[in-house]
Amino acid sequence: MQPETRDPNTAPGEIHRVVVIGAGTMGHGIAQVCAAAGCEVWLSDVSAAAIDAGLAHIQHNLNVAVQKGKLTQHLADATRARLHAEPDLRVAASLADLVIEAAPEQLELKRQIFRTVTETLPSQALLASNTSSIPLRLLTDAVPRPDRFIGLHFFNPVHLQSLLEVVRAETTSDETLASALQFAKRIGKEAIVVRDVAGFASSRLGLALGLEAVRMLEEGVASAADIDKAMELGYRHPMGPLKLTDLVGLDVRLAIADTLAREIDPVRFAAPQLLRDRVAAGKLGKKSGEGFYKYES
Predict the structure, then answer these.
(1) Which pLDDT score is estimated for 9?
(2) What is the DSSP string of the chain?
(3) In whole angstroms, what is the distance from residue 31 CA to residue 22 CA?
């Protein structure tokens, strides 16, 4: 689908067109739920191959949902029809009522993305980051309209997880927060609102448990399977902390740990050497085929 000129009559706060930057695990999941909710969605990435892979993952998710009877073929086809590829960030941003950045947890990368996006972003559009740990205050100086900037932290897998963490920066306006909460409801998410501190609420809590689980494995307290089973059966967690780390990505967890160690406490959030060693060896979790467990492709 060729990009169209954005409707100048769209009222502030109305979100019909969404641009998702980053076609990886989180980005394509965010694009899917937005398209399923009726939004026209443009998926953007520096690599056309990454966009194609993201769209293929979405198609797979839709096919599985249809096969399991959770979605009709008609709705699946309609969702896919609302998804478009646009590798040029400036073109994509010019179409948007909302831009959601879902790039890797690298501060300078995100800042550069925002500088590029805001060259063509309409003044009334909202700009959001899916960062799971970086304080928004470190990003706002790359945004000319910080009152329209907010954190929208989704959870993996996005099309199955119901939580959306809405992070309010000091500069975020009441109108922007209201629009974000309305959007969360539209895409079927349960929103919580948190203050802009490193790690927010969910990443900070999840990381504390995950890092301790890695330390226990490093110290030989128990096997990975038994550490996870302790939390799954003893505390009714749907997934143990090491399995969850594999799902999130060991590299992502390490980046969050380093951010929280720098921003909050270098002792509490110090990453265990075992985690660093696994990341250095390319054992990033499910996406690489091995983390704390091994996975078939």
Answers:
(1) 45
(2) -------TTPPTT---EEEEE--SHHHHHHHHHHHHTT-EEEEE-S-HHHHHHHHHHHHHHHHHHHHTTSS-HHHHHHHHHTEEE---HHHHHHT-SEEEE---S-HHHHHHHHHHHTTT--TT-EEEE--SSS-GGGTGGG-S-GGGEEEEE--SSTTT--EEEEEE-TT--HHHHHHHHHHHHHTT-EEEEEES-TTTTHHHHHHHHHHHHHHHHHTTSS-HHHHHHHHHHHS--SS-HHHHHHHH-HHHHHHHHHHHHHHT-TTTTPPPHHHHHHHHTT--BGGGTBSSSB---
(3) 10
Cα separations in angstroms, 147 against 6, 124, 137, 191, 259: 21, 10, 12, 20, 24
Query: Edge-to-edge, what's the strand order for the sheet holding 98-101?
Result: 83-85, 40-44, 17-21, 98-101, 126-129, 149-153, 163-168, 190-195
CA distances to 31, 34, 55, 95, 154 from 65, rounded to whole Å, are 16, 16, 15, 30, 20
Q: pTM of this prediction?
A: 0.85
Cβ(200)–Cβ(206) below 8 Å: no
pLDDT per position as a tens digit, 178-206: 999 999 999 999 999 999 998 899 989 99
Say if CB 44 and CB 51 are below 8 A apart.
Answer: yes
Instruction: Report the alpha-carbon distance of residue 179 to residue 43 in Å, rounded.
Output: 21
Torsion of CA 102, 197, 168, 244, to 10 degrees: 40
Domains of the chain (ranges plus CATH)? Answer: 17-195 (3.40.50.720), 203-288 (1.10.1040.10)
Higher pLDDT, 32 or 4: 32
